[in-house]
Amino acid sequence: MRERVEGVSHVVLVASGKGGVGKTTVTINLALALASDGARVGVFDADVHGPDVPLMLGIAGIPPEQSRKLTLALGRRDTEPYIPPLDRFGVRFMSVGLLVAESDVVRASAVGLLAVQTMRDVIWGELDYLLVDTPPGTLEPQQTIARTVELDGVVLVTTPQDLSLLDTGRSLLAFEQEGVRVLGVVENMSGMTCPHCGEPIEVFQRTEREWVLDGRRVEVLGRLPLSPSIGGRITRSSPVLDTASSSPEAGVFRELARALRERTADSP
Question: What is the rounded CA–CA span in Å between residue 120 and residue 70?
């Protein structure tokens, strides 16, 4: 049985069919774009083995006693949320990777349970949106989250080539088979503007195929440019929506946030 996350109006997975497409960068800037529009937003990093959200937000770790508390509470369903989220740029966030020591080995069978239990143990408060950043693919913890958490849908991040379309198409089908609503696709690194002449450049060979799932066209929520500004700032723990909020790149993320709000407007 699927359950809502306490206090959260909309839970949205951000996923990708393959790694290296900028999914976490999109997640963070999308969260900040929603927050800049007045929404109360949280980000949960569900990647146990390669959590990137803390690094990109400039967070090194949390006190070890919180990690010990997680171990004691794992698997219990009679406890109230007790883990205080961290606050960065006005967004609440928590990463399962912060609560697991680097020397700890998490069994593959426990990865999904660990992610779901941690997400439910965070004191999120009242949130309009909780974005869940997941590892690439459709295995754990995605499967356990999809089967136990009431989700408003999934957003797939990809790049515009045929190969990425193929991998992402498989992920879309897998999520739909789990009963998760496909909200749409975000094309990242979708061309760039030449810094010398200002003309658009297609860096990757763009696919000529449409996004189609079981005969239905899947909406492209937004196309984000390949920009040194976006990538460079996130590696310095200073996302575009914080340090360059009036830039064209920030405007694209705001358009993406508006598209997401429209797609989830009919959710309870």
Answer: 11
Phi, psi of 213 (to 5 degrees): -130, 115
Give the CATH number, domain containing residue 188.
3.40.50.300
Q: Amino acid letter at 102?
A: E
* In the block, residue with structure tokens 């497409």: 21
Neighbours of 9 (CB within 10 A): 17
Assigned domain for 28 exists: yes
Cα gap 206→190, rounded to integer Å: 8
The whole domain housing 222 covers: 8-264
Sheet of 41-45: strand order equals 86-88, 91-95, 41-45, 127-133, 8-15, 153-158, 182-187, 220-223
Helices 23-36 and 228-235, axial angle in degrees (round to 10): 90
Express each pLDDT in 183-231 by its tens digit: 999 988 877 666 677 666 666 666 556 666 556 678 889 888 877 666 5
Kindly report the backbone phi and psi dihedral angles of residue 97, in degrees, each rounded to the nearest multiple of 5, phi listed first. Answer: -65, -25
